[in-house]
Design a protein that fits this description.
Layout: H1 2-27, H2 34-54, H3 65-72, H4 79-116, H5 118-128
Helix pairs in contact: 1-2, 4-5
Length: 136
């Protein structure tokens, strides 16, 4: 799979370079450059055919749609992974904070329930099987 992706990447790079060169030729077109332009057009068609041949080798590759948004915005698609990891870390911290808050709430609630309803809390703990635990 890696060599298939490398082949596709190589073909795409060659195609992009060919298009860049064609842009230069067309933007400053001179009649004597017609043969070179024709060669570049043929190379472009050949490059598209090569890319089309490689599509069967990379059909199993799934690209998230957000990556295409990055490309459309002119951003490096390799930054997508970095941004996903940063978002996941931020969400992880947020969820961890909520879990910690709920644990503190539970501990405080058990302390207060123990003060107000000691017999009932003892029965509750006996039913749950955690009589020895007091803080959580």
């Amino acid at each position: 799979m890696a060599s298939s992706l490398e082949n596709l990447e190589t073909q795409l790079e060659m195609f992009i370079e060919n298009v860049r060169q064609m842009d230069i030729i067309v933007s400053d077109f001179q009649p004597q450059s017609q043969n070179v332009l024709n060669q570049k057009l043929q190379a472009m068609v050949h490059g598209l055919q090569e890319i089309d041949k490689l599509k069967t080798q990379v059909q199993d590759v799934h690209v998230p749609l957000e990556v295409f948004d990055y490309i459309d915005q002119g951003r490096n698609p390799q930054l997508y992974t970095k941004d996903c990891i940063e978002k996941a870390l931020a969400k992880n911290e947020q969820v961890k904070g909520k879990i910690d808050a709920y644990r503190k709430f539970k501990a405080n609630m058990l302390v207060e329930l123990g003060k107000t309803f000691p017999n009932e809390l003892s029965k509750y703990r006996a039913l749950r099987g955690d009589e020895g635990r007091r803080g959580d």
